[in-house]
Amino acid sequence: MGTVFGRKSQPTRVTEQDKAILQLKQQRDKLKQYQKRITLQLEKERRLAKQLLKDGKKEKALLLLKKKRYQDQLLDKTENQISNLERMVQDIEFMQIEMTVIEGLKVGNDCLKSMHEIMSVEDVERILDETQESIEYQKQIDEMLAGALTQEDEEAALAELEAITQGEDLALPEVPTEPIPEVPETHKAETERREAKDKPDREMLTA
To answer: Mapped to the 3 state alphabet, what secondary structure does 14-57 carry?
Structure first.
């Protein structure tokens, strides 16, 4: 099946640097295999040379040791080549890391530029000034609420209160200037007649 649950697999992005690293590592591994094979062969030839000496075959033993000496030189060269390959792999991998860092710095720099275009230095200074003014204003209110006014401030406030008080007249009720109206004569006579009528009744109650 080409797909799993109807979804296509995303292709892996392999860069030229990745290919170069892979080739270098393959060459390094081949050299290590060659180095291992030569080392085993040298040990074998060394034992064979000892056996030839025991058998009295000195010339053959000497010829075998010369061959071994040449292979030792090849082994040293192989070791140097492996070191060079490993160093090159490390350099390329480190360069990839540097490229990733540089790309991240580029993205961050572009983001900062966009933010600077949205908000200028003047806007930042204005916001900071407004924030500082708000902080100072709130600090003044807190000091006043906490009773942190100095004696000079207290005296100035009392003096201002006295000045306001003296400058205002108290609103007292006005005295009426018009005469009080008199009771009409008819109303007065009616009242006296009613009192005279009720007087005998009060006397009987008290008797």
So the answer is: CCHHHHHHHHHHHHHHHHHHHHHHHHHHHHHHHHHHHHHHHCCC
Which is more confident, 16 or 206?
16
Contact 8, 2 (CB under 8 A): yes
What is the pLDDT, as a whole number, of residue 102? Answer: 92
| pLDDT > 50? residue 130 | yes
The structure's pTM equals 0.41
Split at pLDDT 50, 70, 90, the class of 4 is: very low
Residue 203 CB partners (closer than 8 Å, separation 6+):
none
Nearest CA to 15 out of 94, 96, 77 is that of: 96
Burial category of 132 from C-beta neighbours within 10 Å (exposed 0-12, middle 13-18, buried 19 and up): exposed
- Token duo for residue 118: 């949205």
The pLDDT of residue 205 is: 47
Strand partners, 4: 7
- Between CA 75 and CA 82 the distance in angstroms is 11
- What 3-state DSSP class applies to 77? helix
With H, G, I as helix, E, B as strand and everything else as coil, classify residue 158. helix
Residues 6+ apart with CB under 8 A from 71: 38, 41, 42, 45
Q: Is 149 helix (H, G, I), strand (E, B) or coil?
A: coil
DSSP secondary structure of 85-135: HHHHHHHHHHHHHHHHHHHHHHHHHHHHHHHHHHS-HHHHHHHHHHHHHHH
